[in-house]
Each structure stands twice: as structure tokens, then as C-alpha cells.
Amino acid sequence: MIRPSLPRWVLVPAGAAVLFLAVPLLAMLVRVPWVALPTLLASPAAVDALWLSLRTCALTTVLSVVLGLPLALVLSRSRGRWAVVGRTLATVPMVLPPVVAGLALLVALGRRAPLGGWLAAHGVDLAFTTGAVVVAQTFVAMPYLVVAVEGALRSASDEYGVAAATLGAGPTTVLRRVTLPLVAPAVASGAALAFARALGEFGATLTFAGSLQGTTRTLPLEIYLQREVDTDTAIALSVVLIVLAAVLVAGTARFTKRPWSET
Amino acid sequence: MSGLYVRGVVPDRGVELDLDVPAGSVTAVVGPNGAGKTTLLHLVAGLVRLQSGRITIGEREVASADTYVPVHHRRVALLTQRPALFPHLDVLANVAFGPRAAGADRTAANVRAVAELYAVGCSDLASRRPDQLSGGQAQRVAIARALATDPDVVLLDEPLAGLDIGVAAEVRHTLAARLRGRTALFVTHEALDIWTIADRLVVVDGGRVVEDGPAIDLLTRPRTPFLAQLCGTNLVPGVALDDTSLEVAPGVVLRGVPDDEPLVPGGAGLASVLPEAVALHLSDPGGSPRNALAAEVTSIEPRGQVVRVHLDLAGHLVAADLTPQAVAELGLAPGSSVRASVKATQVRLYRR
Lengths: 263, 352
Hints:
- The structure holds 2 protein chains of 2 kinds.
- Helix content of chain A is 78%, strand content 0%.
- Chain A is mainly alpha-helical.
- Chain A has one domain (38-262): MetI-like fold (Orthogonal Bundle).
- In chain A, 35% of the residues are buried.
- Residues 258-263 of chain A have low confidence and may be disordered.
- By secondary structure, chain B is α+β, with helices and mostly antiparallel strands.
- Chain B has 2 domains: 4-221, Rossmann fold (3-Layer(aba) Sandwich); 233-351, CATH 2.40.50.100.
- Chain B is elongated, with a radius of gyration of 24 Å.
- Chain A binds chain B through residues 159-160, 162-171, 173-174, 177-178, 181-182, 184, and chain B through 45, 47, 70-78, 80, 82, 84, 86-88, 97-98, 101-102, 145-146, 149.
């Protein structure tokens, strides 16, 4: 079928949008010191930051799935006032300025805060540790997984769960063999989004975890630190982030045909 | 094999259903839309809770005001219009799902699944994905999947309604074979389903069971407008004069042949007349074995090869099927006065 065509003038603003998005990235690629790239990336500070980011983001993704998936399951079945409260709680960190998220974490879990003090007294001292980085990243990244998975669960039909139950499957079997396999693509894309969001996390990490090389200074923090001191290193690290982001987005698109329209 | 007893009261849905399904009998459930047929199945499956009453399967009480056995412990299979095969599993794994959930190991479950697929004629589909099946194939696999759990009761909610006519005929045949000897409730709108598959028939209306009996008796001698419509026949009530004549209005007498439950003079009776047996004339046709009664055309409804002419016959609604040519030649229109004639041999008379 031939669809009614778009008016040609739409191409002008659309082209402008492409340029707007592409120019900064292209400028970065032009500016990259390609020859010196291996040396720049091999510096101890760069390696520390890169390694720390990968470790914390992996842990954040695991935590987001372990905690966020059950939350999404519960929210998808909830109605009424408490569901609204839960859904709001799950989405607020997405729109919160990261520095505010970091401050909130500091107020709740910092050494001088009641909860943080209690934790510290029991041997869990989060402040300025790698654990704090994971907490900050999970706080801002988990909502992406919750929203993606809950959307998929809500739009999924009840009929498979009903069929499984009439075939004798208890709730755990239904979850394990029917519900989860059916939303696996959404879990994968939600996890990729959470990983990407954690990778780019800056404000909450800096506010709550600080910037200690090898302990809390992740890639974005290192880039920010180097941008005036050593612009070449900052750009080299940025290229790594751009490549990772592109790989994640492309990978997500493979799992779900239209991951953006699902949420 | 277990029988099924239902007394289900759900005031929220306006339902108060009483039903006793003998072990090993397939009971068809018919009734107008919204009558409570699906609610009946959902009560038995455990998808709707009753507020008072009791449901037992064999000796097991599965629901009452204070017991609720969850769906997965009821041993009740449910087949609906949509096969709902798990899209992420192949056909064999779909059918093996029930036995696996019941604790069978993979090999035993697969052996059972292969046998069930063979029984519905789908052995060659075992490795297909559900999206590679036609509608009829998917419904056959759904039947195999449901029966692989050895359910005590099989519930069917119009499982043939979504299929093409030819495919439905084949699946109906398979269902009849696979349901024989099982306790089942089968919701349908098709008289053919009842003739082919069911041995008992229940009519549900307004949330109540209004008729309940052997399917053949209810279908051959319908006594309510709903069943008459299901069987495609006209039903005219009246008072018996003798076993071959029924007074359907003061001075208006229908002559016919006595059925198995013949009229008792002075008692209430029914005349059953098929629409194709009713002929229309503009003047009295004559001929002694015919009934010829005055009637008025109320509406005319083309139905493909035939035209259904709805008549007001001495206060009763009667349908007559004519050819389009006959309707045109008679010049029929709503309001036309006609003589409706029916051979006495085409009128079956029985007790109400």
C-alpha cells in the first residue's frame, strides 16, 4: 500500500535536527587525538576510571534487575492510591536533577544522618566508598528498568497466565516459565537502559560518593576533572563513552523492535 | 471420572446457578449473551469467586463461602475461543507444560505430549512455534495441551467460534472424539455442536439455569423461544383439543402429528413448525391436509438463498422461509395480509 506522502518541507527541520544531533559528536571525533589514543587511555587514572565505571555499572544493573523486576511485577498488578504512590516513587528519580538525588542520599545515608549512622555503627560505612557509587547509580538508573518492564507487563495479555494456571502451574511456575520469558525482551532493554544511565551518572555520584581515584571517580567524573587540565585525555575517555552508548542503544534495538514506544 | 456439582451465587454479577453434571457427560451450555454462561465456567475454574453456594468436583469441594481452591489446584481445564498457546514455547513444550507443572520429568512429559498431539492429529507440528500454526491447528494443540493434564472437568467456552466454517467442522469432530467419556461443560451458540458433542443440555438465562435435561429431548422438543430459535423452528403455544389439534388462539386451530409426548386434551401444548414448511398465499389455497391461517407480514429479512418473512399469526410470531422469487411474485411487504399454509404432517405437537 502506498502511504500518503509527507510534505517535502518536513525534510528541512528534520535535516536540521539530524545536524544538531550529529555535529557535536562529529566535532568530538574530528578532535580525537587518534594516534595518542592508546597511550592516553592506558594512563593509570584513565584505566582506574574505566574499570571502576564498568564494575559499578555492572553491579548497578544487577541490583536494578534484582530489586526493580519484583517492583515492576507488583506495580503492574496494583490499582488504587498505593499504586499511584509506588509508581510516582519509581519514576521521580528519572526526572530529579542528579545533584538533588545525591543530596537526598547524603541526607539519608551520610555518616551524620540517622540511618547512615546506624548503618555505620553496624559496620556498613557507605560514605566515599565504591558502594556509595553503586547506591547513587542504582537510585537514578533502576527507575528506567522498572518503567520499561512494568509497561511490558501491563500491555501483556492475562490469557497466558490464566492458561498456565488452568494447566496446573502455581504462581512461581507461571512467573518462571510464562511471565518472565514473555517480558524478557523488555527486561533486557530495561537493563541496557539502566546500564547506560548508570554509565553517564555524574551529579549524584559526585555529591554522594565524592571523587576518589580508583574508588569513586567514575568515567564521567574523570572526564570532568581532565577537561581543562588535559583535554586530550578527556576527549579520549569521552569517545569510549560514546562508543559504549552507541553499542547499548543498538543492542537494545535488537532486543525490542521499538523499545521507546513501549514505556 | 468425577461429576461436577455447582451451586454458585454471585450477586455482583446477578448470578445464581444450580447445576449437576454427571460424571462422564458432556453438558452443553446455551443461553443469550450476558446470561452468565462464561461466569458459570469461571466459577468452576476458580477465576470468579462465589459469594455463597458450593462447587464440588467428585468428592472434592473446590469452592464455598469459606473455601477457595486456587485455579492451579482444581484439575480443571479451560479452552476458550483463543488458543492462548505460549508464544515462547514450541508446540511440544506447550503440550508438555501441564505434565511438567504437575511434576513429571522432561522425558515423561514429552512422551505424554507426543501421545496427546497424535490423538488430535498434530504429530507433525511438534517442533513448530505457535505463530507458525493456522487457527485450526492452534486450537487442536490447545485441546491436546488441556487434556495432557488429565483434568477432572473440561470447560469449553466457544472453542470453535473463531474458526472458519470448514476448519470448525474438523475441530468439532476431534473435540467430539476427545471429550467422549469426560465430564465437560461446553458453552456454544451452535445446535450442531450440541448434536455432535453433548449428551446433556443446560439453558442459562438471566443468571439462572432455566432448562436442564438430555440434549436430544430438549432439541427435538424445544419448549422455550430460546431453544426454538437455536433449533431454527417456530414454536406456537396453545391448548390441546385432542392429540392432533391445538387451539393457538380462540377459534384458530393448528392440526399436526402427535410427537413422543402427545397432547392431552385440555392441557397446554406446543406446535413446532420449521420455517421452510410454511408457505404463503394471497388467498385460501384449499386442500384438506393443510392448515391455512390468516397472518400479517411484520418484516422481511433476506438471508442469502432464502428470504425470511416474519408473520403475526393470531398473535404469535412465526417465521416463513420463501424464495426471493416467491416474495416478489406475492408482492409481500410489511403489513401485507396473507394465508399461511402448513401441511399437517409438518406440524409436530407435544405437551408443554
